[in-house]
């Protein structure tokens, strides 16, 4: 655990010296005085000072001009007992920024840090058409090493917790019994789950590729969990590229910024996701079978997925295919022995990069496909039980007193989990609902949804709660209330569509976890890389694919 990782395997295709002309020795970050920020319990208006870089393409390697004083200026404020370094980008010479921006854009293009351009109609359907660099932060985000280690140590504990919760069918059904009455999507998932219980379907081989998301609360200095994702955890392919990008930039410009590239932890998310998929394929024990990626019909983030497919083939010689739920319904069949066959090809592992939102089920065809896959002997990532174990309602149930003890034996592990739990409540808690109506800014209202853009914030919380009270139905069971976390605000340079934006931002750290079990044998249970996302402090939502945030990496302090 901690900050020692192998390099992101697929980013080494091109040597960094083809882009970076010199590698001055970076200076340590320890000499910079640490500073804190006031508790940002208010919204900051972003500066949105935009400068579009009209950069010269130079035939010869350019010389980097030193800043005044040779280092990034550090603003300093004090609040409570916590301190935090904050880079003052207002003091960085614009010519230097333009050089960094240019190198970053070239690096992104050559190393596959790309997504489909939403302005190009076919960019989500045809590979190679309408590519643009993925949105990213120009420099890594400072983050306390102690909290980074804490998040890494939690990953295998959460992996085991998800597995144990998934095996308790009664707990899943009972916890979500009210939710399904007011949420058709959850009801559909529970229907499939109940069908698997009726036929006594056992998942002897269970594969989980999870991501637990956290924010560092400025007031309490606690690392608090936002949510546990058990289906379609995005950006293992592109997220680790951003870590390599930042390390490369600091190798070149670190001396002038006062930053050390060694403080950016390596991020093996792609290679370790692929290793987990390959090991599951091996456990299935059919060398002719393939790994099937379940995808959306129009997917601008396809390259994040294609990185995994390419590495599976190149490193492990495992073939893949991509199918939508509708295509699986049309082309899929179940053989008498339980083998899933799609388009004439036996499937060893079903890896979901779709199926997490009601939008993925526009007709009965998609639901039939999901049921067909669950009935098969293929390894599902995730199974329907793992999917349900990652719902917001289950997260809220696990916070209740004595519930964790039902699934976790080790008292130290229980204490570690509870330490990162934020406040979570159901809407049948009248005292909490009353407080949320009176002080809506302290809460977030969450439906049983994934993918970003679904939560309710601010005065909208009050309006939604009052409306549900007036309706008097069970619609409130579709939501939970969560303590709103106020993280540290930092000045950041954000890259989107080739333009550099300067803004006040907050960040969210996601820790990937991989879990593979065959009956009683745990084959894999570990942390496997991270995803850092940074967004404007004025934005409530935080999804990168949804357009709210940018990809980032860590600078350990």
TrEMBL record:
Keywords: ATP-binding, Glutathione biosynthesis, Ligase, Magnesium, Metal-binding, Nucleotide-binding. The keyword Cell division does not apply. It is an enzyme of class 6 (ligase). SUPFAM superfamilies: Glutathione synthetase ATP-binding domain-like, PreATP-grasp domain. Its EC number is 6.3.2.3. Transmembrane segments: none annotated. Its cofactor is Mg(2+). Pathway: Sulfur metabolism; glutathione biosynthesis; glutathione from L-cysteine and L-glutamate: step 2/2. It catalyses: gamma-L-glutamyl-L-cysteine + glycine + ATP = glutathione + ADP + phosphate + H(+). Binds 1 Mg(2+) ion per subunit. Residues 289-389 form the Glutathione synthase substrate-binding domain. NCBIfam families: glut_syn_euk (TIGR01986). Belongs to the eukaryotic GSH synthase family. This is Glutathione synthetase. The lineage of its organism: Eukaryota, Viridiplantae, Streptophyta, Embryophyta, Tracheophyta.
């Amino acid at each position: 655990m901690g900050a020692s990782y192998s390099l992101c395997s697929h980013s080494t295709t091109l040597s960094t010296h083809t882009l970076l002309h010199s590698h001055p020795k970076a200076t340590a970050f320890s000499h910079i005085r640490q500073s804190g920020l006031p508790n940002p319990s208010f919204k900051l208006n972003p500066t949105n000072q935009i400068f579009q870089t009209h950069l010269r393409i130079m035939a010869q390697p350019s010389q980097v001009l030193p800043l005044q004083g040779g280092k990034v200026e550090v603003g300093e404020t004090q609040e409570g007992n916590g301190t935090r370094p904050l880079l003052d980008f207002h003091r960085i010479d614009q010519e230097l920024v333009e050089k960094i921006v240019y190198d970053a854009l070239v690096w992104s293009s050559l190393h596959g840090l790309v997504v489909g351009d939403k302005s190009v109609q076919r960019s989500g359907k045809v590979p190679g058409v309408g590519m643009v660099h993925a949105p990213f932060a120009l420099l890594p985000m400072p983050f306390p090493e102690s909290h980074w280690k804490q998040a890494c140590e939690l990953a295998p504990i959460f992996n085991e917790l998800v597995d144990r919760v998934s095996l308790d069918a009664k707990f899943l059904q009972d916890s979500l019994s009210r939710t399904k009455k007011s949420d058709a999507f959850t009801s559909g998932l529970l229907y499939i789950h109940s069908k698997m219980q009726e036929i006594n379907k056992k998942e002897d081989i269970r594969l989980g590729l999870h991501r637990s998301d956290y924010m560092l609360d400025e007031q309490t200095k606690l690392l608090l969990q936002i949510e546990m994702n058990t289906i379609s955890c995005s950006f293992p392919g592109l997220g680790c590229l951003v870590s390599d990008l930042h390390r490369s930039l600091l190798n070149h410009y670190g001396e002038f910024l006062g930053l050390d590239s060694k403080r950016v932890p390596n991020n093996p998310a792609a290679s370790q996701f692929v290793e987990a998929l390959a090991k599951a394929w091996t456990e299935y024990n059919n060398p002719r079978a393939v790994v099937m990626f379940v995808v959306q019909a129009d997917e601008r983030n396809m390259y994040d997925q294609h990185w995994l497919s390419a590495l599976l083939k190149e490193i492990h010689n495992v073939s893949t295919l991509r199918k939508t739920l509708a295509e699986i319904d049309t082309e899929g069949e179940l053989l008498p022995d339980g083998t899933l066959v799609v388009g004439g090809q036996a499937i060893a592992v079903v890896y979901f990069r779709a199926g997490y939102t009601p939008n993925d089920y526009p007709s009965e065809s998609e639901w039939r496909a999901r049921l067909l896959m669950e009935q098969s002997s293929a390894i599902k990532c995730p199974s329907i039980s793992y999917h349900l174990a990652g719902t917001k309602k289950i997260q809220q149930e696990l916070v209740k007193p004595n519930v964790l003890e039902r699934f976790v034996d080790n008292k130290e592990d229980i204490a570690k989990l509870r330490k990162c739990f934020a406040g979570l409540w159901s809407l049948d808690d009248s005292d909490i609902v009353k407080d949320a109506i009176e002080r809506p800014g302290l809460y977030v209202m969450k439906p049983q949804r994934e993918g970003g853009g679904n939560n309710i914030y601010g005065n909208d919380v009050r309006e939604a709660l009052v409306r549900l009270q007036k309706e008097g139905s069970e619609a409130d069971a579709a939501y939970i209330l969560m303590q709103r976390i106020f993280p540290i605000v930092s000045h950041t340079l954000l890259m989107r569509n080739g333009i550099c934006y300067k803004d006040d931002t907050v960040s969210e750290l996601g820790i990937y976890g991989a879990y593979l079990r065959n009956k009683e044998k745990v084959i894999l249970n570990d942390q496997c890389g991270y995803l850092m996302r940074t967004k404007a402090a004025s934005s409530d939502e935080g999804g990168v694919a949804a357009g709210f945030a940018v990809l980032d990496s860590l600078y350990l302090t």
